[in-house]
């Protein structure tokens, strides 16, 4: 439903355009990117903004690979530039080594990831395997539900990442094609409001001949562990900032997409469905149908996958009779999606006792239909009554192809 | 040198080997550039020996990211300086070994040169992966014995000729590509200075003998470096906008045998059957250099 306050402000644009516009409004100093489907429209739109002189004090580097895209931003951020890139799938995997490097050097580089499956088999459509494979790189990961949120989360993430207590890189994860290529009515970020919300990037440590510093030194066993500890501490400090920044954004812009998590029909829910990204829209539609019949089904959207909001997840599902987690990814060898594993893990040593079941689905862009969600809910209702028989499984597997 | 040596900005006390070629290369580079620069240094001996946290030998701002991305990191540093309005005053220097330059990092360097970033790349070429224990790279010369191209009963060592990296950089349209050697400090300082004063991506390839990897006494680093030039195995020249503009002439080239005999990595050529023939092939490389670059 469209908020009446946005009337007259909304325009219908492609998801990629809204994101590119948002990146522009955040006043980046260096953009560096390599084209890859379905991220291309974002970088094409940014290139056009550059060609039209619409991004002041900014250099756009047309690099020769995603590996160089992120590497260039490491150099740029160390000089004190606000940096932006966008990528997906194989490109994100090619960045993998440098992702650790960016977070290890505590450089708050921000990227949009237009989530896509990874090969082989090669597949250009959406799932979350690419970003989930980066879970241990020390990057903040926020998953968004729609185009407005993809756009609004960028300035929020800059503000969180550039906070002196955090200083970590971050990625906004938006579903490739489903969000990057869809045309939706959105409020494009306003420059003046964004300038009020997001202060200029002024890091404490930069490469400057007037005060020479060494970045990326060699750490032996007597010092290395403390660097890792401090990264973890920074992630923990990011948890309350993600909540606080979302609220601050709401105060200025009047829009709220959730902090670490967001509930829908959650207060009295007996069955809770958890997931990340655009599939939440489909899930909410199905839940509306159940609610119309008086069934107490609720939704827990997980917005922040890294840092993982253990406390908020426990709190949100503690009164449920059964929980089901839908993952557009799988950790091969566990038969589980990552959100499912994390959810179970955060309950184990707690007092919350609720059966949690997992589905891995939507791989390589397979449609997730309302009937399938209803099937999941029916299975979860059985679990609420008689316990778990199958802990985790694929949804909508075509047996005839096996 | 008759004049006082210019000040350098890398402090002593690092953990480089006695007679370390990288220490010489970094020292001469910073003598040429001065304090107003940002140095990008890919993974390698120089990075490891100069920055054991919390210590650092660098008296200029310095960044190490990864092994294969110095070209891209330097691109980002340069772009950021431009965007922030600081580029006019500050030089961007990348300095890396032959492995990070000619093998694993060549893609990022190619991209940076193609895009025309205003920076100078200095390759310290010690002709193998020394930091990991003397494994061959594409800079390793023909017949050199390394731990991954060892001489053996049926092998004379590295079977491939050295990759011509300066030619690759010339082909990128670089306004200035020069070869030099740490055995000729004044030559190296002059060329690095010239490179940094030219706008655009410029490339210095400095031959840098490694006492540990090549097998010679720690007091002989500069002597071996000079011998490479005097035998014409390492030609020193400048190329500006694709044209050869200056060559260091070698009036009486010494036989390559003198150079080879002074290093353990070529020792097998003097003990194995057929070694003489191999030495002739290496002499032919020097003769080709003399003709091709007009060294006489």
Structure description:
The complex is a heterodimer of chains A (402) and B (296). Chain A has helices at residues 15-25, 40-51, 66-79, 89-104, 129-132, 147-161, 191-197, 224-253, 279-292, 310-317, 338-348, 370-386, and strands spanning 10-14, 30-33, 59-62, 83-87, 110-115, 140-143, 170-175, 183-187, 214-215, 261-264, 271-275, 297-302, 304-306, 322-327, 356-360, 392-394. Chain A is an alpha/beta fold and 402 residues long. In chain A, α1 runs parallel beside α6 (147-161), α9 crosses α12 and α10 (310-317) crosses α11 (338-348). Chain A is globular. Chain A starts with 9 loop residues before the first strand and ends in an 8-residue tail after the last strand. With 296 residues, chain B is an alpha/beta fold. Chain B has a single domain (21-293), classed as Rossmann fold (3-Layer(aba) Sandwich), CATH 3.40.50. In chain B, α3 (70-83) runs parallel beside α5 (106-114). The longest helix of chain B is centred in the C-terminal third of the chain and has 19 residues, at 275-293. The A-B interface holds A 29-30, 32, 57-59, 61-65, 67-69, 71-81, 83, 97-98, 101, 105, 207-209, 212-220, 223 and B 35-38, 40, 47-48, 51-54, 56, 58-66, 68-69, 71-86, 89-90, 107-108, 110-111, 114-115. β9 (214-215) of chain A pairs parallel with β2 of chain B.
The major pleated sheet of chain B works out as:
8 strands, mixed
The main sheet of chain B orders its strands as 2-1-3-4-8-7-9-10
User: How does CATH name the architecture of chain B?
Assistant: 3-Layer(aba) Sandwich
Cα separation of the termini of chain A: 42 Å
> How would the global form of chain B be characterised?
globular
Average pLDDT over all residues of chain B: 97
Share of residues in helices of chain B = 25-40%
CATH class of chain B: Alpha Beta
The helix tally of chain B amounts to: 11
Structural class of chain A: alpha/beta
What best-fitting shape of chain A do the alpha-carbon axes yield? globular
